[in-house]
TrEMBL record:
This is Imidazoleglycerol-phosphate dehydratase. Gene3D superfamilies: Imidazole glycerol phosphate dehydratase, domain 1. It is found in: Cytoplasm. It comes from Methanohalophilus mahii (strain ATCC 35705 / DSM 5219 / SLP). It catalyses: D-erythro-1-(imidazol-4-yl)glycerol 3-phosphate = 3-(imidazol-4-yl)-2-oxopropyl phosphate + H2O. It comes from the Archaea.
Length: 192
């Protein structure tokens, strides 16, 4: 059974078409209009091994908030559709990724409950045209719609390195959590 999903979302602020295939090769075609965010999503695809296509337009003349939030929503919805059964998956994933002086750690549970714990502070307001505050907001939007629990921490002093390490650790944790290990759902309840 293919583990892929396509989700479209159009509002007065954004228009997004996203396809994700978690059994892919890490290929990506990303166009959000925010260069650094494109770079983070390409890193996510490459390091997770998920194929990811995003064609997104938004009211960037206002700022990137609506577009980044809505991409998190759509990516979470697509992932939730793929993981609807949760049968046979490892369920838990974790990764620590260094990038020079920065070190990011992401631990996740595909358990059907949305919760984000994030310890990340940034020195600068922007990396390129990407507002660093929106890092947390992207993960909040994803977690809420994917119905996963995610704990993320990062330290360092270069904000580019810190955010990139977070996205790469997120990718590796997702890759591990979605691996098929057997049959049935990993829960003493028998369902998630």
């Amino acid at each position: 059974m293919p583990r892929s999903s396509t989700v479209s979302r159009t509002t007065r602020e954004t228009s997004i078409e996203l396809t994700i295939d978690i059994d892919g090769k890490g290929d990506s075609q990303i166009n959000t209009g925010i260069g650094f965010f494109d770079h983070m999503l390409v890193c996510f695809a490459r390091h997770s091994g998920f194929d990811l296509t995003i064609d997104a337009k938004g009211d960037l003349e206002v700022d990137g908030h609506h577009l980044i939030e809505d991409i998190g929503i759509v990516m979470g919805q697509a992932f939730d559709r793929i993981m609807a059964e949760k049968s046979g998956i490892a369920r838990f994933g974790e990764a620590k990724i260094p990038m020079d002086e920065a070190l990011a750690s992401v631990v996740m549970d595909i358990g059907g409950r949305s919760y984000l714990v994030m310890d990340a502070t940034f020195e600068s307001e922007n990396v390129g045209e990407f507002n660093t505050q929106l890092t947390r907001h992207f993960f909040e939007s994803f977690v809420s719609n994917a119905k996963v629990t995610l704990h993320a921490t990062v330290y360092g002093y270069n904000d580019h390195h810190k955010i990139e390490a977070l996205f790469k650790a997120f990718a590796q944790a997702m890759k591990k959590a979605t691996v098929i290990e057997g049959k049935g759902v990993k829960s003493t309840k028998g369902c998630l």
